[in-house]
Amino acid sequence: MIPRVDAVALIDLAHPDHETARASTRVGATDIGFLTVYNTPIAPQTVADVIATYRRFFHLPAMQKAAVDMAKTGSNRGWGAPGSEQVDPDANPDYKQVFDCGLELDLADPLRALDLPAYAPNIWPDTPEDFAQTLQDYYTQSTRFALDLLCAIADAVGMDGSYFRDKFTRPMALLRGNYYPERPAWATEKDFGIATHTDYGCLTLLATDGSPGLEVRKRGGGWIPVAAPVGEFVINFGEMLDIWTEGLIKATPHRVLGPTSERISVPLFFNPNHDANVAPEGSPGIRAVDHLQARFNETYVHLQSKTG
Ligand SMILES: O=C(O)CCC(=O)C(=O)O
Ligand SMILES: [Fe+2]
């Protein structure tokens, strides 16, 4: 039996095959649903630059950010203003701001013809000047790392990790910057930076600016605070992987109440190809794009109003 834990394991990726690393990975994936990793292929300076780039964007006046407001689109690309997402129907919409970008399909890619919102073209602000380039470079690095991690974690829990490789050739992966201002004075018990939720996809690779705020629900009740300095990553798992692995790998609820000073976090939601079947073997199929779009339609306020 796997022991219940109260802290999130920290795993040294310089030595991923050590038995302690594998055992901690198993507990992180199959019990708590969260782990943290360091000594990764992504340099801490790269993460610091990405966070600084998002910070410059979020500090722009609202008028300038409104030029790339995702509420003007039918998808989730661009800036999400405060109140643009409601991840928990029992809470108020989150007061965080976000910026979302996704995979750039090649011009010749036949997937373009399907016109799926999950592969919508990115929209980029004029400033900061290096915004698109910095985020696209990070998107490339982080999706590569996320796939290797997912396969290694699947191996560590006794599955065949290589099974996942061809399910992520055109990932609906979404890179997000979360911007939490200081918790507003008007915030009530129904107001959160991000309210309690589970992520929708497979693996989330989360970088933060090092400040605390993230809390992970303990299976027996209560919350575990999780923080990671710049260069360490928090890893957690989403609903699709929970379904796909028949509950072996856990999608655990988490939240950010709201920090005492500004906080930035950068999740990569590593979602599979649109047509990946995330249903467990032998059950009716669930296309990844259908699960993802249903969750977007429930939680993005501008899509809620379109889909009723
Ligand atoms: O900001 C964080 O630490 C967590 C953010 C989060 O849970 C999310 O964006 O889904
Ligand atoms: Fe999350």
Automatic annotation (TrEMBL):
Gene3D superfamilies: B-lactam Antibiotic, Isopenicillin N Synthase, Chain
Pathway terms, separated by semicolons: Alkene biosynthesis; ethylene biosynthesis via 2-oxoglutarate
UniProt keyword list: Ethylene biosynthesis, Iron, Metal-binding, Oxidoreductase
An example Gene Ontology molecular-function term: metal ion binding
Residue ranges of every copy of the Fe2OG dioxygenase domain listed in the record: 170-272
Enzyme Commission number(s) from the entry: 1.13.12.19, 1.14.20.7
Any Pfam family matching the protein: DIOX_N
Family designation: Belongs to the iron/ascorbate-dependent oxidoreductase family.
Protein name per UniProt: 2-oxoglutarate-dependent ethylene/succinate-forming enzyme
Species this protein is from: Cognatiyoonia koreensis
Source lineage: Bacteria, Pseudomonadati, Pseudomonadota, Alphaproteobacteria, Rhodobacterales
